[in-house]
Amino acid sequence: MGTPTEIMRPTDTVGWKSGFNTIKRVTLLALKSPWMVAISLVSTVIATALQLMVPILLGRAVDQTQALVSEPTTAETATAALWVTAGSVLLVWVLRGFFTVFQNYFSESVGHNVGYTLRLAYYEKIQRLSFGFHDRVHSGDLITLGMLDLEAVRMFFSTGLVRIVLLSMLIGIGGYFLLSTDQVLGLLALSFVPFVAWRSSVTQLKLRGTWLELQNRLTVLSRVMEENLGGIRVVRAFAAKSHEMQKYAVASESALELAHERVDIRVRNTSIMTFSFLVAMGLVLWLGSGKVVAGEISVGTLASFLTFMTILQMPVRQLGMLVNSFARTATCGDRIFALLDLDLAITDAPDATDVQISDCVLRFEDVGFTYPGAAQPTLQNLSFTAKRGETVGLIGPPGSGKSTIAHLIPRFYDVSEGAITLDGQDIRDVILQSLRGAVVVVQQDAFLFTTSLENNIAYGDPWAPPSQIADASASAHLNQFIATLPAGYETVVGERGSSLSGGQRQRMTIARALMLRPSVLIFDDSTAAVDAGTEQRIRTTIQAKASERVTIIVAHRLNSLMHADRILFLVKGQIVEQGSHAELLALGGRYRTLHDLQIRPEEPQS
Q1: If I label 332, which of 253, 282, 376, 430 is the partner at 20 to 30 A Cα–Cα?
Q2: HSE on the CB side for 149, CA within 13 Å?
Q3: Does 37 score more than 90 pLDDT?
Q4: What is the pTM of this model?
């Protein structure tokens, strides 16, 4: 089980220091595409500068038009100037659109590069985290984290960093122009800015809070759907459609209510901000008209003011989006980096070397193991030795530690006490990849991928020759079944192998393990779904090659391990009886009682 270092901390509330560090890390990721960043920022500056020229040119055009009407004697000169201004406006808009395309394209490209880097790092980290981590964290939560949170971080460059440059120029330069032209009109024109900026920031922070809650509710919704799809056969078998629909409806309605609340917040505040803008524009129009009549300013200047206000309206609203972008990136990024920064519970030692197999002796030396959070140890002072050519059976009541032993040998978990050695090498001192090439576990869960039978069998060795795949299939007694299929080994199995029977799926996993020709082969109750005849044939085939390896069989049925050279009977993580089948029967203890219950159930037992 993973150590406490693999426990993710909740980050719904992020401190300023943690948030700053997260923003810094995301920014550094964006700067790994320097040319794209440079082109995006330069294009933003140019596009913004061109946009700021539009009100000035439009004001000039209005004045030129007025001159054309009021002074006919200068018609030709005014007309020529008006055409020049009109051409300038058209050229400015075209160039602004051109550079805006560059800005959007390259800023999105930078974001996608950040997303690509994080996505690979996130997926790679999930592959390396211990079984203990995956025991605690629901897969639906990890999928949501790797999609919604990662998408929020990916968008930070375009919605955060680029927007800072854009808004700084528009508001700063636009505000300076308005105030330098006429302070009174400028103050009126900018009067809506503080209110809209405040209202927008408050709104976006509220929306962020509800977005986080909506994300949690969507996680629950995806979890319900994932479990339903994974257990669809159970749902159908128990006619539980109504129950499942009710569960999904409750989760869906919860998400819908919050979505409606978000829409209400957005619409209500947008209306308030629009009203404040229209009030400010009305005041500018009223006072500006008086100044025009008084000859203090021209009509073109008033037109420039109104155009500047229209241009500034959206950027000011985007201040709230900017605040939200930083807050959202800080929160979502902190969650992602919290996972990426986890210390691996199961990892290679600094001086680890490849495992060297010579005599192939597996030894448990006073092994103890306790799952984190458990009140009692699962294994206590467990010691036994298994040699090449020997088959060891593990049996005992549920919770006695049989599967735990199977998972400790390939280091899915690390022992709490004692040591496990392979040819005298502590398995914690060898490279994991080499250890898991030498030790293979056939799991209870017969998981298959949605691909061909050949790819499923050769999963551990994709480049294996067809003859090796065929040999492994024959050993698992799959070859006759595969021969009946029209596409043979190219037949694609359904999701999780749903198109195969339980016994066929288990034989597939056995063939997958035999492909690797391991030194230690562990069957973790992996023939439970196989009929007795097929199990006997598989066992005979495996026994023929048992001299090449250590074989460990975990089972609940005595028929699966009566042939073992030695059988260990476990109770509460300790060996209470051991010996061959005949020796344990003669002992007349727990094993004999279990034997009589399974083999002769019709006879009354004490």
Answers
A1: 253
A2: 27
A3: yes
A4: 0.73
Looking only at the bridges linking them, the beta strands covering 391-395 and 550-554 are: parallel
Contact of 153 with 333, CB cutoff 8 Å? yes
Model pLDDT for residues 488-527, shown as the tens digit of each residue: 888 888 666 666 777 788 888 888 888 888 899 998 877 6
Under the banding of pLDDT at 50, 70 and 90, the label for residue 74 is: low
Q: What is the DSSP string of 306-372?
A: HHHHHHHHHHHHHHHHHHHHHHHHHHHHHHHHHHHTPPPSS---TT-B----SS-EEEEEEEEE--T
- Give the pair of three-digit tokens for residue 551: 């074989």
**Cα Rg for the chain, rounded, in angstroms?**
36
Q: What is the DSSP string of 469-524?
A: HHHHHHHTT-HHHHHTSTTGGGPBP-GGGTTS-HHHHHHHHHHHHHHT--SEEEEE
**Which token pair is 314?**
């959206």
The residues, any chain, with a CB within 8 Å of residue 578's CB and separated by 6 or more, are 384, 566, 567, 568, 569, 584
CA–CA separation, 377 vs 370, rounded Å? 4
How far apart are alpha carbons 93 and 91 in whole angstroms?
A: 5
Say if CB 277 and CB 192 are below 8 A apart. Answer: yes
- Max CA separation in the chain (angstroms): 128
The two structure tokens encoding residue 53: 């020229």
The answer to whether residues 490 and 466 touch, using CB atoms and an 8 Å cutoff, is no
Rounded to 5 degrees, φ, ψ at 258 are -70, -35
CA angle 434, 469, 124 (to 5 degrees): 40
* Identity of residue 27: T
Q: What tokens were used for 253?
A: 């309605």
Quick one: pLDDT at residue 44? 92
Rounded-to-integer distance, Cα 272 and Cα 264, Å: 12
Instruction: Give the percent of the chain with pLDDT over 90.
Output: 18
